[in-house]
Amino acid sequence: MADVDLDVIQIAGADNEGWRVLEQAHAYHLMAAKDELPPQWQVTESLLRRCPNLLCVSSSGAGYDTIDVEACTKAGVAVVNQAGGNAVSVAEQTIGLMIAVSRRICEQNHKLRTERGYSREDMMGHEIGGRILGLVGVGHIGTRVAALAHAFGMTVLGVDPYLDAAEIARRGAVPVTLDELLGRADIVSLHCPRTKETTGLIGAEAFGKMKPGALFVSTARGGIHDEEALFEALSSGRLRGAGLDVWSAEPPPLDHPLLGLDNVVATFHTAGVSHECRFNVAKIAAEQLQVFLTGGRPPRLVNPEVWNSVTQRIRDANLL
């Protein structure tokens, strides 16, 4: 697009230049990781007031924790994410965490490197094949996880308030209530966004409803599950293990209680960090911004209710 200028803002050390660029910008593409992007560059009411030309903000991932969507909607600014671009990578790591926890792979690796005199039977784990998997969220990633789980002969249950029963079934899961899912699943895996409704969704009460000896996995967002309650469920032996890619604070402190448990496999929000995923997400983002800047409606619009006011602002600014 010959008539579009692209500027890259340094997130540290060049604030004056960054604000000079951003105050003139019509579109702003920013990191999705809240703990990695300095607060001044996150999209808030304050930033929107300072940058009145903004028409569209674009998250670099499926999540948009660095964007105040409600403030954008009030300001007539479109918000887009790259939902689906990370589905393959996150789904693969989800299955990897299930296997690693169930077969105790990380424990085996550590013992082989540090100890002798134990038997192979001391490290005996369980197959995931034939187990019941419960998906909390059956969007792009949940659907992909369901497909992979079926290849292992798993029964897949699903709950998603944004989908009706027929659509959940079409995506490869048996539709159930959350309580039924918690009570039946051998493995509970989170794939829902972090919203006001889902923050703290899986706490002590939910862990208490899970089957004794079940596994818990999350590649969704930190804050959806209660880390203290999960520690209690694991250290008491009620749950057999957990695979965690997301944390309330990222990275978690080295002395985090969950990191001290052998039955926890922990990663640093890397489920979507693969070469293929990063390329795919960048390509989708570029294509969406091209659609927007040439007058089209982007396909991954987070706040569709704002579209009429955004198009009016585009006309008022004589950009097309």
Automatic annotation (TrEMBL):
It comes from Candidimonas nitroreducens. Keywords: NAD, Oxidoreductase. Residues 37-303 form the D-isomer specific 2-hydroxyacid dehydrogenase catalytic domain. This is 3-phosphoglycerate dehydrogenase. The keyword Oxidoreductase applies. The keyword Electron transport does not apply. GO terms for molecular function: NAD binding; oxidoreductase activity, acting on the CH-OH group of donors, NAD or NADP as acceptor. It comes from the Bacteria. It holds the Pfam family 2-Hacid_dh. The lineage of its organism: Bacteria, Pseudomonadati, Pseudomonadota, Betaproteobacteria, Burkholderiales. Belongs to the D-isomer specific 2-hydroxyacid dehydrogenase family. Residues 95-271 form the D-isomer specific 2-hydroxyacid dehydrogenase NAD-binding domain. Coiled coil: none annotated. PANTHER family: D-ISOMER SPECIFIC 2-HYDROXYACID DEHYDROGENASE FAMILY PROTEIN (AFU_ORTHOLOGUE AFUA_6G10090).
